[in-house]
Specification:
The protein is mainly alpha-helical. It contains four helices and no strands. α3 crosses α4.
Length: about 100
């Protein structure tokens, strides 16, 4: 089955078209990095700056952690995934020829 963001499937209704916007797909792809990174970031801001709870600290944290998570996804997770897949394919190919 093809994924919705693979570029090969066309959205069929308005909601699908809206949710297929490239920036929303990028946010969705970066959500795992956000999940992992926000714990560290929140603890770091609490320890370093005493950033507490409330609306204003939450907005500032989100304004920093969401773009940082997308950058982590683009510059760490994607290249790492590519390296792992290349290694795996070489490993599989060498096992097939052995």
């Amino acid at each position: 089955m093809e994924s919705a963001h693979s570029g090969t499937r066309k959205p069929t209704n308005r909601l699908s078209k809206l949710l297929s916007a490239s920036w929303l797909v990028l946010l969705g792809e970066g959500s795992y990095a956000l999940y992992l990174f926000h714990f560290l970031f929140n603890d770091w801001t609490m320890d370093r700056f005493g950033a507490g709870h409330g609306l204003i600290p939450a907005v500032w944290k989100l304004a920093i952690v969401i773009p940082a998570s997308v950058l982590i996804h683009v510059y760490v997770e994607r290249p790492g995934r590519k390296i792992i897949l290349q290694w795996w394919n070489r490993r599989s190919a060498s096992k097939a020829t052995a």
